[in-house]
Each structure stands twice: as C-alpha cells, then as structure tokens.
Amino acid sequence: MVQCPNCKEFYHENASFCPACGTPAPKSISVNASVTETGPFGSTTTEVKLSDSTFVGTYATFGERVLAFLIDAVIITIGTAILSAIFSGGGAFIAWILTAVYYGYFESSKYMGTPGKIVMKLKVYSGNGHPISFLNGVGRYLAKLISAIIFGIGYLFPLFTAKKQALHDMIANCVVIKASN
Ligand SMILES: [Zn+2]
C-alpha cells in the first residue's frame, strides 16, 4: 500500500493514479546491489539496499492488533495498580481515565501508536491518511465501549472489513497500518 504525496490517501501499490485526487503514483524504486572490495587484508562486501520510500505498509491484521492490545493491557494494569496504591482506591475510575489518556496521548504522538503498537510496528492514521489528534485518539478509545458492548464483536471487525477496521476505527474514522520498516 502506498500513500499519495498530495492528499495522503492510501491506495494499492499497483495503481498508477491516486483514486482520490488523480495524482500519478510515485515511481516505485527497488535496488539491491553488493560491492566487494579486495585489499591487502582480504575482501569486504558492502550490501546496498534501496527500496521504495513511498510504500508505507499494509493494513494491520487482527492477530497483530491483539498482540499490541495485550502489551498495552499489561502496561495499563501495572500503571493502574501503582496509581490506585498512591491514591488508595478508585481503581476502576483511575483505569478508565488512564486508558483514555494513554490512547489519546500515544496515538496522537510522533509514534502514532501506543507502546504495544510501537512494538508491533502499528500506526494509527485518520481515514484520509493523516496523523490523528489527541481528541480523536480519546474518541477512538471511547468508541471501543461500543465494540465491547455488542459481546466484543466490534473487535472482530478487522477479520472481514475491507480496510481491516474494527468497529471503533469506523466510528472514529481511523485505520491501523502495519509499517513496512
Ligand atoms: Zn491523492
């Protein structure tokens, strides 16, 4: 999947034009070469790899997202336990606020994802390919309530939606991309 340099829309790497604004697709470049130099003390080989910098990745799969979720759950659980100890109580409320701020802060940061997503190389973009705002990240978290309330089925949406979006991604107009590097 490539990202249009003009309007930031994501589209398939085989397309020659951006379907949203008509800008011609960036030429894809892929070079693999190796240079071997022989000196008095033997030879050294230098590998040169250049790949298309416009290729951003693919839509994250359900499994990748589950792993990111589990990593974040561990961090949030530990954070909640520490804060609950400090404030001696209020665990559920602290967990709720902490999680909302955690998702809003990290998903709108330069990493475009929570620590769990960073480990899994996942990035949250808005539906039109731009980074999301803090409020958008918090809104996406709140929308997870809806994904959860229908017996968690909203979380399974990436298994069958075109852009592998969960229900809360659709509500918050976001996509999750597995970065190529
Ligand atoms: Zn475009």
Enumerate how many helices there are, as a single number. 6
- Helix vs. strand class: alpha+beta
**Biggest sheet, open or closed, and with what strands and sense?**
3 strands, antiparallel
Order of helices and strands: EEEEEHHHEHHHE
In helices, the fraction of residues equals: 40-55%
Supply the number of structural domains: 2
- Over all CA atoms, what is the radius of gyration? 21 Å
Low-confidence stretches: none
Strand content: 15-25%
Q: Report the bound ligands by name, code or SMILES.
A: zinc ion
Strands side by side in the biggest sheet: 5-7-6
Give the N-to-C terminal Cα separation: 13 Å
Mean pLDDT: 91
> What spatial form do the alpha-carbon principal axes imply?
globular
Strand runs, count: 7
Write a structural description.
By secondary structure, the chain is an alpha+beta fold. It folds into 2 domains: 2-51, no CATH class; 57-179, no CATH class. 40% of the residues lie in helices and 21% in strands. The chain contains 6 helices and 7 strands; from the N terminus they run E-E-E-E-E-H-H-H-E-H-H-H-E. The chain has helices at residues 62-86, 91-107, 115-119, 134-149, 153-156, 167-172, and strands at residues 2-3, 10-11, 30-39, 42-51, 57-59, 122-126, 174-179. The protein starts with a strand and ends with a strand. The structure holds zinc ion.
Please summarize what this structure is:
By secondary structure, the protein is an alpha+beta fold.
